Amino acid sequence: MPEAIEVEAVISPRTEDGIEVDEPKKKADFTPSHGLTTAEADELRVQWGKNELEEKSKPKWLVFVELLYGPMPCVIWVAFIIEMSLHNWLDGGILFAIQMINAVLGWYETIKAADAVAALKASLKPTATVKRGGVWANADATMLVPGDLVLLGAGSAIPADCLVNEGRIEVDQSALTGESMPVTMYKGDSAKMGSTVTRGEVEATVEFTGKHTFFGKTATMLQAADGIGHLAQILLRIMIVLVSISVMLCVAILIFLIVYGKEEFATALEFVVVVLVASVPIAIEVVCTATLALGSRQLSAHGAIVTRLASIEEMAGMNMLCSDKTGTLTLNKMVIQDDCPIYTPGVTKNDVLTAAGLAAKWKEPPRDALDTLVLQNSGLDLSKLNVYEQLEFLPFDPTVKRTEGTLKGPDGKVFKTTKGAPHIILKLVQVDAEDISKRLHWKVHELGLRGIRSLAVARTDDEGKWRMLGILTFLDPPRPDTKDTIEKAMEYGVDVKMITGDHAVIAKETARALGLGANIQEAGGLPSMEADGKIPKDLGKKYGAMIIAADGFAQVFPEHKYLIVEALRQEGFAVGMTGDGVNDAPALKRADVGIAVSGATDAARAAADMVLTQEGLSVIVHAIEVSRAIFARMKNFINYRIACTLQLVCFFFVAVFALEPKKFRPDDDLAPDFFKMPVLMLILITVLNDGTLISVAYDHVVPSRQPEKWNLKVLWVISAVLASIAMLSSILLLWAAIDSGNPAGVFQRWGLPLIHYDQIITMMYLKVSVSDFLTLFSARTHSGFFWSMRPSPILLGAATLALGLSTIIACLWPGSRPDGIPTRGLALDEHYTLWALWVWIYCIVWWLIQDTCKVAAYWVMARLNLFQINTAKLVNMRAAQTFSDKPLARASAGLVETKLMELKVDKAIDSVGRMASAPGADSTASTNMRRISADLVVMRNAARLTRNSMRNLRVQQSAGGAAGGDVEAGAGNAEQEAARMHQSIAQMEAAIAAALPEARPELQATLDGLKAAAARLEAVQQVVRTEDAAGDKKEKELRRASL
C-alpha cells in the first residue's frame, strides 16, 4: 500500500505528501508463541479470567421488586395495611390490585426495553483459530489466554489484543480509531480486539484478553456510566411534593376529626387513608412509561430503535449533539473526487483512471483498499480494460510502495502503468521531471492541508520513458443528507459538534464541507482521566468554555470523547452522542442520549439509548420531533395530574373543616357530622380517570422548536390555578346541595327541589369525575383556550367512555351504605331525575371559568416574564433558566442561532449563484443577483461578528476582565450587527421583487429561512441585553449600598 495513504495505529506522527500519518507502536522484542497446551491455557485462564467483558445485569424479579417501593407505592402499602387491619377486605383488595397493576405495567414496559438491549448485544458467538496441544482448531474465543497462538486471516475478527509474529496483514481499525483506511501491520505490531483483518494471513501471539484489552479498558468506562435518569428525577421531585402536601393535609384532617369531631380513631383513619390514596397520583409513572413506550414504537417505525425509554424525554431536551465523523457524518468509504490535476497535455481524468485500473488485476477481486477505490468506487467501466492484455504485474510491496502493470494494447504496442504515492511515482518520471516536481509538490501540499489524499498515476510513452499522467484525489465524503440534517438540527436549537479520531486536516475539511465551522481542537488541549482512572471533578469548569466554543475535535481517543461529553453534562447541557465504533461506546453510554448509527458495532449498539436502522442522520431530526411531541404529551398529563391531586385533597380538606352536613340538616338522619365519600367511589375516580388517560399518548401536540426543559415553577402555578377553580366549584356545589332545604338557598332560588343526602354523595362523585376530565382538556392547550387545538380522536373517545361510565354509575348507583355512608343514584329518585344533567351544566360553566383563568394566568406570566416563561427556552442549557444561572450559560448565548444564520446565508449564496448563472437570465436580473450575493456576504460577516460579541462579552465580565463600559460597548456591537442583518434582509426583499418571476419562489423560500433565523437570533440578543441591563443595575445598587 502506498505510504502516502497508510495511516498506522497511533503514537508517533510523521508527515508525508502533505498529510500527517502515524507510525505503529511496535514490540519487536517479544517472543512469538508456538502454542500452549490445554493445561497451560487452563492455568493462565485462572490467572487472567475469560476473554470476555463483565456486564452488570439486574434480575427481572429485582426490577419488579423495585417497582413496589418508592413514594407512591409506599403510600398504597400503608393504606393497604391500614384497611386490612380494620378488616375492610374489599377496600384492601382493591388497593392491592391497584398496586399490582401499576407494578406489572411498569415492569412489562421496563423489561421490554431491557430485552431490546439484550437483543442488540446478542451476536454470533465469537470464535478463533487457535493452536492448542500442537493442533490447530476453531475454538470459543472467550477461552483464549495471553500466550495463545492464533491465526489471523482476511475477513476474520481479531479475537483479542495480538502481536503479529511474522508477515504482513492489513487491518481495518475504523471501529477503534475512526481512521477510514486499513492499517498495514508487520512483526511486532499490536492488532487490537474489535478490529478486522482485511488482507493477508499471519500467526499472532495473544497479548491481552478480556478487560485488559484496549476495548476492555473502554468497557470499564461503560460500566462506570450510570445514574438516575433526568425524567426519573423530575417525576420523583413532583411525587415527593405531592405526597408531602397530601400527607400534611390528611394528617390535619385526621387530627381535626379525632379532636374536634370526636370520631373514633379507626373510622377517622380509614377515611383519611382513602383520601390520601385517591389524591396521590399513583398512576403517574405508569402513564408516563406507557406514553414513552408508544413513542418508542413510533420511532421504531421511522428507523430508530429505543433501548432506554427515558432517553426519549432526554432527547426532547437535547441541546448539544456530538457526532463521530467516520461512518456517521461520512460514508466510511473512500471515493474518487472530481479534482484530478493533469500533468500530460491531452490526458483526461478518464485516461488517468484507466491507467490506474491497468496497474491492478482488474479481472480479479480487489486486493487492497486502493484497488477497491480504483476498480469499484471510481465509476470506471472495467469492460473497456479488457481490450488490453496484461503481460506482467508487480503487486504492492513495502519496499517498492507502488503497483505496476505491463500491458499490450489493441494496437500491439507494449507499455507500462503504475500507481502509488506521489513522491514515489515522481522518482520514476523522466519527462519534464523538474517542472512537474514543483507543481506536484505544491498541489499535494495544498490537498494535504484540506485533508484530501492523493494517488499518482504514470505511464511509459513510445520511447519507454515514464510520464506523469495525473493525480487521483480521494477522501471519505460526507453523507448526502448530513449537511441538511445538521441545518435542521440547528433549526430545532441543537448545536452539532464533530468528534473524530481522524487527523485534524481531514476533520477541518469535513467540517468545512458540512458548514460546521473551522474551530477544530486537537487532542493536545483536551482533558484526560486522573491517575486513578476517575473523572476530574472540575472537568466542566476547566474545559467547558473551550469545548462549547469549538466546532469539532480531531485525533481524539475514546477517553477524550467520554470526557468531552462529561464536561458538557457537568456544565448543564443535555448531550447527545452519535457513533458507530467501539471507540464511541463509552461516550454513547455517558451521554444523555447515545445514538448508534446504522451499521454500528455490537459494542456501540449495546451502549446506545437509540439505534438507527436507516443510513444517515436524517432520522435523528425526526426522532427529535417525535420526542418533543411525546414530551409535550407527558407535560400535559403531569400538569393535569398535579391539578387533580391538589383539587381533590384540598376539596376534602376544606369540606371537612368548613362544611358539616348535620348543622345544615339537623333533622336528616342520613346527614353525618362530616362530609365523607366511600372508598369505592374514590377508587373508581382514580381507575377510570388514570386508566383511560393512557390515551394522552395519542394526543395532538405541536413539537417545540427549541429544546424542551422542565419549568416546574410555571407547571405548579398553572396546576394550582386549575386546581383552585375546580376545588372552589366543588365546594360551592356541595354547600348548595347540603343547603338545598333552605328556602333562601341557591337550589330553591333556582327552582330546584331538595336533594337527599344519599344522592349528594353520588352528585359529588359525578362532579369530581367530570371536573377531572374537563381539567385535562384545559391543561393540554397551555396558554390557549381549550378549543385552540383539537384533541385526537383516541383521547376524545377515551374521555367520552370514562365520562359516560361515570355518569351511568352516578345515575344508577344502587341504594346502599358502603363504608357506612348512605349512597343512591341520581336517577333513582321518584320525584326528580335530572340531577346528572344539572351537574354536567354546572361543570361545563365552571370549566369555561377555569379555562379563562388559566389563559389569564399565562397572560400575566408572559407579560411580566415571570419564572422566565418567555425566555427560559432561549437559554440553550437544560440546567439554566437565565443566562446568569450557570457560568457557561452566557457563553452559549446565540451559539446555535449564529451558526444557523451562517448556514442559511451560505445556502442563500448558493441559490443566488444558480439564479445569476441560469440560462435566459438578462443582465438586469444578473446584476440584482450579484447585489443580493454581496448583501449576503455582509450578512454572514455580521452573523460571525455577532457570535463573537455575544460569546465574549459576559465571559470577560464574569472573569473580571470587562468593565461596565466594555459591556455596553459589546452590547452595542451586537445591536449594530443585528441592524446590518435587518438592512441586508430589506435589500434582499427589494431585489427579489425585481427578480424574474420564475426565480422568485426559490429566493423567497431562502429569504423566509433567513428571516426566521434572524428573528431567533434577535430574540436571544434581546434577552441578553435585558439580563445584562438588570445585572448592571443590581451591581450599581450594591456599590451605592456599600458606600
UniProtKB/TrEMBL annotation:
Chief subcellular location equals: membrane
Instruction: List the EC numbers from the record.
Output: 7.1.2.1
**What domain of life is recorded for the organism?**
Eukaryota
Catalytically driven reaction(s): ATP + H2O + H(+)(in) = ADP + phosphate + 2 H(+)(out)
Q: Where are the transmembrane segments?
A: 61-82, 88-108, 234-259, 271-294, 638-659, 679-702, 714-738, 794-812, 832-849
SMART domains linked? Cation_ATPase_N
InterPro entries, alphabetized: ATPase_P-typ_cation-transptr_N (IPR004014), ATPase_P-typ_cyto_dom_N (IPR023299), ATPase_P-typ_P_site (IPR018303), ATPase_P-typ_TM_dom_sf (IPR023298), ATPase_P-typ_transduc_dom_A_sf (IPR008250), ATPase_P-type_domA (IPR059000), HAD-like_sf (IPR036412), HAD_sf (IPR023214)
Which positions fall inside the Cation-transporting P-type ATPase N-terminal domain?
A: 15-88
UniProt xrefs under PROSITE patterns: ATPASE_E1_E2
User: Where's it found, cell-wise?
Assistant: Cell membrane; Membrane
Membrane topology, as annotated, equals:
Multi-pass membrane protein
Keywords carried by this UniProt record: ATP-binding, Hydrogen ion transport, Ion transport, Magnesium, Membrane, Nucleotide-binding, Translocase, Transmembrane, Transmembrane helix, Transport
Q: Which NCBIfam families match?
A: ATPase-IIIA_H, ATPase_P-type
Q: PANTHER family in the record, alphabetically? A: CALCIUM-TRANSPORTING ATPASE
The record's family statement is: Belongs to the cation transport ATPase (P-type) (TC 3.A.3) family. Type IIIA subfamily.
The name this protein carries in UniProt is Plasma membrane ATPase
Specify the species: Tetradesmus obliquus
